[in-house]
Amino acid sequence: MEHLENIKKLFSKNFVENPLIETFEAGKIILPTGRLIACDPLITNDMKEFKIHFPQGEFPVLVHKERDSNCIAYVEVVFGEEEIVEWKLATTEDQNIEELKGEEIFGYPVESGMGCLMDFETQDCLNHLEKRLFHRKGAEFMGIYEEFFHDHFFDENGAIDQFAFLKPDEEKPGNLFAFETGYGEGFYASYIGFGIDNQPIKLLTEFIEIGS
Questions:
Q1: Residues 13/212, Cβ–Cβ less than 8 Å
Q2: Fewer CB in a 10 Å sphere around the end CB: N or C, the chain?
Q3: Mean pLDDT across 134-138
Q4: Which pTM was predicted?
């Protein structure tokens, strides 16, 4: 995939050198099992985790914005500082890269304008939270976005931020990282950078392709 060459040039180092990109340290994602999921949390609450399992623990998340639009172009999770020797398209268990043609990708659909990274265990917590809120509020339940996500992104004065860490269950260690996806709706792929020992060093999701 020629597209991977651009990813390789932009993100194989420990920092991004591109005048079109502005990078922010967002915080840390907590992965209790290392079974990482990327999805639109409002429409793909049953999204499968990536085939590659990642380390367990807390890991830095970087947000890379397109300077001109101030939109999020890339979200990156860093698992280590080792040299990256290869990038691959991230896939789930039922996806086979050999079936792709040309620059086709596997990824996840976004209809809400919001993406999410979380552990498999945290996805289960989010689904249980939605069910609990629905059973408790009944007809007054406005949906998981209004009940859980909205206040982290908007208040009475308008937008607060473009991304946030949230905990769907305070008794569980995991959190999720929710964020605006590029220009909004779309179909977005993730990529894994591997070290010399074939261990995952970075996970990157692309929303706006920015040439290197």
A1: no
A2: C
A3: 77
A4: 0.92
